Amino acid sequence: ALAHAKKEMTQPVDGAVLPTPPKIIALTFDTLMRVTLITLTDQDGNKHRLTRSDEMQPVTKFSARPAVLPAGAYTIEWRGLADDGHPMQGSFSFEVRD
Q1: Kind of pairing, strands 16-18 and 87-96?
Q2: Of 25, 27, 72, 86, which residue is 20 to 30 A from 15 by alpha carbon distance?
Q3: What is the pLDDT of residue 4?
């Protein structure tokens, strides 16, 4: 049996505490993945805009640029469809401190 696709890395790493806002949000997968949804939400539930670079095409390295983020805690939630047709989803979080 073949293993399903896996998320290999996030940028920032899950749980990171950053001195400055990230310039990029990234996910790396071990096989092609079409990221169908990605959201960036702060601790108050406000969504922040992300500008994607993948044009909804399958990629192994997904990236998006956030707007300038103020200090606070953030959660990224994503969903995708792996090359093998398997739906995937996940989340990770980070904090920006002054």
Answers
A1: parallel
A2: 86
A3: 66
